[in-house]
Amino acid sequence: MNDGIVIIPTYNEIENIESIIRAVFSLQKPFHILIIDDNSPDKTAQKVIELQQEFPDRLFMEQRTKKSGLGTAYVHGFKWALERHYQYIFEMDADFSHNPNDLEKLYDACKFGIYEVAIGSRYVTGVNVVNWPLSRVLLSYFASVYVRMITGMQIQDATAGFICYKRNVLEGINLDRIKFIGYAFQIEMKYRAFAKNYKIVEVPIIFTDRTKGQSKMSNSIIKEAVFGVLALRIKKIFNTL
Fold first, then answer.
1. Per-residue model confidence (pLDDT) at position 156
2. Residue 186 φ/ψ, nearest 5 degrees
């Protein structure tokens, strides 16, 4: 029985989707994949449907009617996975910024180690980012510094989106209370796991910026992260997290 599923949210990823699916399925460790597509106008979902004919028992898809944000896509995927038998549930981007080969590192940290959350970290051994402009590196790096200052959570890459959760973590977090959608969603998930004393480890990876398709970063996502961290800390202080 397969115990690991990789959740990949998509919006206009037609240039990457087939390659990323085949890359995951080529790994020695067999993973399943769940695509959460937000009605991509570039026909990403149609390509996934074609590939499901080739991988009928490993490739799954949930199609949503509109673009509703990264956070809600992952929560949708988490709930889907929890309704099934998966013990290790992954977040991963579709654009190869996360190397599929590193999935096995995250899996091993949770499967064979003491950890319940394994984060693919860009900053735990320095700055391991390829093809990002300096301004983007500084924004991401100092966002994590800011998060540590406000929350006291000693995670070097608080905004990382390449993660393995053990099933019990997602069962223990109230997913219906997750409201953030961008950077703040990634921070909130880690903070909720931290607040419940789940064992968290950062596994060093090399992050490579996408070469195909367009970034989903926006000023509203950055703003959400800045104020969202303060909101999370206030909720924790008043025991309303």
1. 94
2. -65, -40
pLDDT in tens, 3-21: 999 999 999 999 999 999 9
Cα within 13 Å of Cα(55), Cβ side = 20
Provide the CA 152 distance to its chain's centre, in angstroms.
22
Cα distance between residue 58 and residue 81, in whole Å: 13
First to last CA, the chain: 35
SS3 1: coil
Single out the residue of 17, 15, 9, 59 nearest to residue 38, CA to CA.
9
Query: What is the C-alpha separation between 215 and 176, in angstroms, rounded?
Result: 27
* pLDDT tens by residue, 160-171: 999 999 999 999
Q: Report d(CA 166, CA 87) in Å as an integer.
A: 6
Q: What integer best gives the mean pLDDT of the chain? A: 91
Is residue 63 a contact partner of residue 74, using CB atoms and an 8 Å limit? no
What is the pLDDT at residue 221?
57
Which pLDDT does position 9 carry in this prediction? 97
How far is Cα 188 from Cα 113, in angstroms, rounded to an integer? 24
pLDDT at res. 235? 79
Can you tell me the distance from the alpha carbon of 94 to that of 17, in angstroms, rounded to the nearest whole number?
6
